Each structure stands twice: as C-alpha cells, then as structure tokens.
C-alpha cells in the first residue's frame, strides 16, 4: 500500500464515522416521528431520565425497540445484498428481486398457518428453509445471465404470491394471523420475540465482516483467487450460508422487504470502490439508514395509520433498479 | 408444409393446413368449455337444458342467459384480447418475456382505474378511459427508460419489472389512502376476477376489444413482414415506426380494457402466444393461435377458479398467476438448457 493509500484509509475511517453519526441522527429522528410526535429532546430524556409519562412510554416501549429492529433488518438485507452481488458478480442481484425473500416469507406463512411456527426459533427455521429452497431454484433456472436470474426470481415471487393469495382466500382464519408477513413492515413487530433472530443477524453480520477480505480475492475472479491461495469453494459456501441466514432472519422479523439489498451496495460502492471489506462496513451503516428513513416515511405518508415499509422501499427501489439496468444492463451480460 | 388455399369469390387466402387444423381444434375446445361454463353452477344443468335455455326455452333461462352467458363470453373475449396483446408485445420486443403483465401495463391500467374509482364515480366509461390512459403512460415510461440506441429485449423486460414495482407501490398507497368501501372493492378487484360480471358491464369493453382485434387482423401481414427483419420490412413497404406505434396502442387498449373490467389477469398474455407459436410451429409469434389459446386458457382458468373451492369462487387471477408463474420458470429453464 502506498502513502496515498494510507491517507485514504484515514479518510475512509473518518467517512465511516460520519456515516455512523448520520445513522444515529436518523435513529433519534425516527424515534420522534409517528402518530404521536415526540420532540427529540424529550426522546433523549425518555432514555436517560425516564419519568413514566405517555411520551416516555411510547419512546421506551415502541419507538426504541422499533428503531433497533429496523437497524437489524436494514443491516441484514443490505449486507446480504452486498454478499450476493459480490459473489455472483451480478449488479442486479438482490435477495428480494431474486425471490429469496419471498420464498422465506412464503414457507414461513404456510408453516405458521399449519401450526409449525409456534416459537421464534420455529419461525426462523421455516424462514431459512424457504430462503434455501428459493435460492437453489432461482439459481438453477436463471444462472446463465444476470437478467435471466432476475426474471426467474420475479417468476418465483409471482407464483408464491398467487398461491398465498389463493390460500388466504381458502383458509381466511388460519391465514389471518400471518397476513402481516405477506407485506413487509416493522409496525407491531417490536413486541414479538425478537431476541433470537436479532442475535442470529448480529452473528451473521460479524461473519460477513470477517469474510470480507476473503471475498475480496473471489471478487477478482476465480483464477486470480486460486493463485492468491483462496479456497474459493469454501468461501462461496460460507457466503451462501450467510446470505440465506441474513435474508431468512430479516424476513422472519419483518416480512418480505425488497430493494434494500439492491440499492445499498450500489451506493456503498460509489463511496468505496473496489474493496469488499469496506463495502460490507458501509452496507452495515447505510442499510439501517435506508430502512429507518423508509420506515419514517411509512409513518407519515398516510393521513391515518401506517403504510407497510415494504411499499416505501419498492417506491424507492424501482428507480434504483432502472438506474442499475441502464448502467450495467447491457454490459457484461 | 401443406398449404390450403381458401377461396371466396375473387379473394383467396393461402393457409397452412396445420394452422387450419389447430384453429378448428381450438375453436371446438372453446365451444366445449363454453358449454361446461353454461352448465356449471351451484346446481348443474345438463347440456341439453343449457342449450334449451340459450334459445329461450326451459326453466333455466335467467340463470343461463343472464348470469352464466356473460361470464363465458367475457372469458373468451378477454382471453383472446390478452393473447393478442401478448403476441403484439412479444413481436415488438422480440422477446418471449415481453408480455404486458410482466412489464407492468396491468398495474398502470389498475392505477388509472383506481383514480377513477377514488376521485370520480367510477362508471364503466371512466374506468375504460382511465385504464387505457394508465396503461399507455406505463408503456411510454418503459420504452423511454429502456431506450438507449435501440431496445434490447431483456433490458426492456427488467425495466418493465422495475416500473411494475413502482406502480404497484403507488397502487397500494392509493388503496391504503382510500375510504374503506372503495378500498375493499379495489383490493378484491386487484386479484382479477369475473365474479359478478353481467351484461351491463360488457358493451364498451366488447366494442373496444372487437375493434382492436379486427384492426390488428388487418395489420398481421405487415407485422409478420416486420418480424423478418427491419430491412425486409422496409423493402416490402412497411412503415416500421408507425406500425409498431399502432401495434403497441392496440395491445395497450386490449390489456387495459380487460383490466378495467376484470382486474389484472396475469400470465395469459405471456403464455398464450408462446404456446400458440409452439403448436402452430410457426415462425414469429402468430396472432390467431395466440388469440384462440388465450380464450381457451382464460375459460379453463375461470372454470377451475369456480370449481376448486366450490361453492366459493376464487378470483381467476389467482389460478393464472400460480400456473403462469410455473410456466415462466419452465420457459426460462428451457432457454437455459438450449443456451
């Protein structure tokens, strides 16, 4: 590394710290926004000097857990997107668009309706199984080209949403309990058992950060990676496991949320080109920012009540997909 | 290839024998399914009773003529419209995935209809108009966004998917903002269904669909010339830009009209032209097989939707989504194997 590289390391660290500061600011702002607006000062006081007032209770029992939930889900989706894009070297890859998210949500919904997901561990398991099945199927059908992979994912998502709509009409009582999961949202999830999935996400995120250096080699191409002494197969498997775990756990927590995993790595790559570890780090910061901002929007876009956050991310993510197709679509495909 | 020449006075038409046989078989299937559709209901009628009711005798006249017949006719006409719309888009994009539903034209038509429902009274005329406008806007947006020195097939489709996601989010937002009764009607409609279709809903859509299909039939020769390549088309005197524009307009009109009445019915536009092309073993994406297979598929899916959970009638869109998505996956797998 040259002297220039060292200077850019200092700059990169400073930039990342600034990013974290933005994340904290967004989180605090998010705690104030909602049906019952709480001023930022009051929000901070609720945390450090709790006095049991209505505002403080909302902050402690609803807004703060929800902010942490949003951060965990946002980080999981963004990092799994970064992993899948690096691994497949496909700029359009994203667990949501590729149908992995929908697969996880679908198996979880069906399993839950059949009474298999009574515990948080059960939900997590089902969600993981769905993610694995969907990944295998979509990859088998669409591996020949990035755009085809997207189509296979869209087709799978369509089949699953059709079947689940049919089942909801057939067994309305059974499915009513799980209808929340059909559209991704953070609302009302704060109170459910989140300890296990969040722990799993945190562990997987640490794993992704550790894997970053090894993936740096794989990103250069298989031959180069081999000459550098990287065990390509083992790295690939590890990355696939992490993608599945992150997507599955995020879906178990919040339901299917698309596009976060697509946009965030693209933004991160503009900030830090050509470095997978930095990409992971930035995904870890930007993912939560995006999801928290989308969640804030979801609370104010309707005159009454809330909108599922997945609708907001689709609204933000569609243009990003168009941009990505225009930018990368015809090249290298 | 065996060619049959049909003559009527001084006009003659050369048709491949395979196409004639195929069309005959498909028309027979349509009639058979239509008969089943007329007989099917909470109480089954025998075919004899149904036919008697059709000509105005027997006890079941009201049930068959006023309740079941409009539904059967709507399924055939809308299926044909979707099949032709799919064939048009697959010809224009030169891509088997380039169907109006994958690219979000139904979602756009649905947005238009939602606007008519929430802002105005939502009469049949308003619905037809706003859905066609919505579909056209989405089509224009997709072609503008994917243009960059020519339209590349798959890229167009993926841009369509992205536009579909945005428009879908807008639709959800409108539904969530709407008043409860409008929202319930809109959500039920979004599943795509012929439940409750009766004669009063049909005159405008049937006129639009019939006009579009007739016009398209006159364009089919030029379309096949264009499919042979731009150079051939120009030398044989086909104005390509105008032809494509007209075709897209007709395709949008078909899709949007169906969406305005029945809601989005996914995958018929995708599957019918491809099945037709395979069965007819024809080059390009021919229109007549696409229309007939579209009609057969729609009728079959609608019957399945009525029977699967009888007496509850499922939205037909649920059936076409589940089956059509599997078909799309299979189609992709086939292409992978060939590649």
TrEMBL record, chain A:
Xref: InterPro entries: ABC_BtuC-like, ABC_transptr_permease_BtuC
Membrane topology: Multi-pass membrane protein
Spans traversing the lipid bilayer: 12-35, 67-84, 96-118, 124-142, 149-171, 191-216, 237-264, 276-297, 309-326
SUPFAM superfamilies: ABC transporter involved in vitamin B12 uptake, BtuC (SSF81345)
Keyword set, alphabetical order: Cell membrane, Membrane, Transmembrane, Transmembrane helix, Transport
Chief location category: membrane
Lineage: Bacteria, Bacillati, Actinomycetota, Actinomycetes, Streptosporangiales
One term under GO cellular component: plasma membrane
Entry's localization field: Cell membrane
Designated name of the protein: Iron complex transport system permease protein
TrEMBL record, chain B:
Record-linked CDD domains: TM_ABC_iron-siderophores_like
GO CC terms: plasma membrane
InterPro entries xrefs: ABC_BtuC-like, ABC_transptr_permease_BtuC
Membrane topology: Multi-pass membrane protein
GO molecular function: transmembrane transporter activity
Short name of any one Pfam family annotated for the protein: FecCD
Chief place where the protein resides: membrane
UniProt keyword terms in alphabetical order: Cell membrane, Membrane, Transmembrane, Transmembrane helix, Transport
Localization annotation: Cell membrane
SUPFAM superfamilies, alphabetized: ABC transporter involved in vitamin B12 uptake, BtuC
Single GO biological process annotation from the record: siderophore-iron import into cell
Keyword Transmembrane: yes
Transmembrane segments: 20-38, 72-90, 102-121, 127-147, 154-174, 243-272, 284-301, 307-333
Family per record: Belongs to the binding-protein-dependent transport system permease family. FecCD subfamily.
Name this polypeptide is given: Iron complex transport system permease protein
